[in-house]
Amino acid sequence: MLFCLMCWPVRLTYAFSDLSPQSELFNIALQYFSSDSEELRSAAAFAVGNIAIGNPNTFLPLILNVAQSNKDKQLLSLHALREVRV
Which of 23, 22, 41, 21 is nearest to 31 (CA)? Predict the structure, then answer.
């Protein structure tokens, strides 16, 4: 639940900021794609997509790589890409 609450500041604060220098934040969010909790997985996809908005050239290839390399994470990757589109 804590991670879910952390996603709103990501959306509001960092949606248009380049977070590539803090790529560990992106990697931490990606780790939650493997969570047992559906809420955490959904929040992670939301966060990953919103982090990618700030520097799509860096983060979109990483999201696409996750989608192509791991069938279990394809839907979450698509949800992350949807956030970039919106």
Answer: 41
